[in-house]
Amino acid sequence: MALITVAVGILTDDEGRVLVTRRAASAHQGGLWEFPGGKVESGESVIDALARELKEELGLEVEHSEPFMVVDHDYGDKQVRLEVCRVLAWRGAPRGLEGQPMAWQPPAQLQDWAFPAANIPILAGLLAD
Q: Which pTM value belongs to this model?
């Protein structure tokens, strides 16, 4: 089974809330909330993939990001490596360009939301900050 590398962005607003989006019902882990991002394409760096995905999904221009954590998870039918970055500066106002619902929430409020299992360590890391 091939490992899929995913670039994930943590965007935090001035009130300490983080941005989450809901996966399309037809997607793997569909209907669950997640931190935005997407698959790293062949030959693409994590930083480049993150910038591309946030532009395609949210209409944002990433200006500065830094590594936060790496999460490896085996779903049984799919293995993923989430390369998680804090997005420290961006241009634009996020909007769901693919029709996905979005929400800004304090990390503590997200503990009862339904996330893919691979996202749980990210939430734990945010709560520990």
A: 0.93
CATH number at residue 87: 3.90.79.10
What radius of gyration, in Å, describes the C-alpha atoms of the chain? 14
58 phi and psi, to 5 degrees? -125, -5
| Strand order from edge to edge, sheet including 33-34 | 33-34, 18-22, 102-105
Q: Is the dihedral of CA 90, 125, 34, 76 positive or negative?
A: positive
Strand arrangement, sheet containing 61-74: 37-39, 3-11, 79-91, 61-74
Count structural domains, the chain.
Answer: 1
Q: Does the residue 99 lie in any domain?
A: yes
pLDDT of residue 3: 93
Over range 88-116, report the average pLDDT.
Answer: 95
Domain range for 49: 3-114
**Cα 58-73-89 angle, rounded to 5 deg:** 30
The percent of residues above 70 in pLDDT, for the chain, comes to 96
Q: What is the pLDDT of residue 77?
A: 87
